[in-house]
Specification:
Elements lengths: L1 E2 L8 E10 L2 E11 L4 E6 L5 H9 L6 E6 L2 E2 L5 H7 E4 L11 H6 L14 H13 L15 H15 L3 E5 L7 H16 L3 E5 L3 H7 L2 E7 L2 E6 H4 L2 H8 L3 E6 L2 E6 L2
Parallel strand pairs: 1-11, 4-9, 4-10, 7-8, 8-9
Antiparallel strand pairs: 2-3, 2-5, 5-6, 10-11, 12-13
Helix pairs in contact: 4-5
Length: 263
């Protein structure tokens, strides 16, 4: 395990972080510092610990050992309301136990900014509608979320996170269920948010998209092994072949790099 890049200017960092499940170590002694305004992509095979790492960094599950810091302060020391306003997490699955319209669902993202027993203001509604507009779902605001397709529901979940307006966005497979057009649109949107000063950490399965839209990459090889650094340094044919257990070839062109199976 190694760190290919180190930086002292960061919004999210971890030190000696070890993540396990059912007595199996997935990530061992992870040291990582993510600078503000950057997109970091987490890549790895199924079961390598991508989701558990994201959840641990978000503070929703405990680590076996080590610390997670947000803006230099231990995550555990943050006030819950301050943390909810600063950090947002998009999970892989979204449940809708009660009937709700698309707009009402997105307004849930505004709750960290609303006082106890207060109702959503017109400003909150404007923020929610703007978030829907950014994911091309504004025309669906009155629809029941139960009537949406998988891809449409995923875009509503992303809009809910955008409405929360956190400085740090953690997204677990945000382009899951999306068609190619909306995959690119969402990745471009997240890249734009990073250039506005927000920090984005997301899991992906597509190394080509990671090469195109991320500034940093965290590779999880399983059994505790990892590699973190600048995307151009970390994503190589050698590391991709090791990561996925097959021979990978890199194709380069004027628009970027692509990684394809060579066998």
């Amino acid at each position: 395990m190694s760190a290919a890049h180190e930086t002292t200017s960061h919004s999210l960092a971890c030190a000696h972080l070890t993540i396990d499940v059912a007595d199996r170590v997935l990530v061992r002694d992870l040291n990582m510092s993510i600078p503000r305004g950057a997109v970091t992509c987490v890549l790895g095979r199924n079961g390598a610990g991508k989701t558990l790492t994201l959840h641990t960094l978000a503070g929703v599950r405990p680590a076996r050992s080590g610390e997670v810091m947000l803006d230099g302060q231990r995550l555990a020391d943050w006030q819950r309301k301050d943390l909810a306003q600063t950090l947002g997490l998009l999970t892989q699955m979204t449940d809708d136990p009660f009937p709700s319209s698309v707009l009402e669902t997105v307004l849930v993202g505004r709750h960290p900014h609303i006082g106890f027993w207060q109702w959503e203001s017109e400003r909150d509604n404007e923020v929610a509608r703007d978030a829907l507009r950014h994911v091309d779902m504004l025309d669906f605001e009155t629809r029941d979320v139960a009537t949406l397709s998988g891809g449409e529901r995923r875009r509503v979940a992303i809009a809910t996170l955008l409405a929360q307006n956190p400085a740090l966005l953690l997204l677990d497979e945000p382009i899951n269920h999306l068609d190619p057009h909306h995959q690119i649109a969402v990745l471009r949107l997240l890249h734009e948010r990073s250039r506005e000063g927000r920090t984005v950490l997301l899991t992906l399965h597509d190394a080509t998209l990671a090469a195109r839209y991320s500034d940093y990459a965290l590779l999880l090889f399983g059994e505790g092994q990892w590699l973190f650094g600048k995307t151009n340094d970390v994503l190589t044919t050698e590391t991709m072949s090791r990561l996925y257990g097959l021979r990978v070839q890199e194709l380069a062109w004027s628009g970027g790099r692509a990684f394809v199976a060579a066998e």
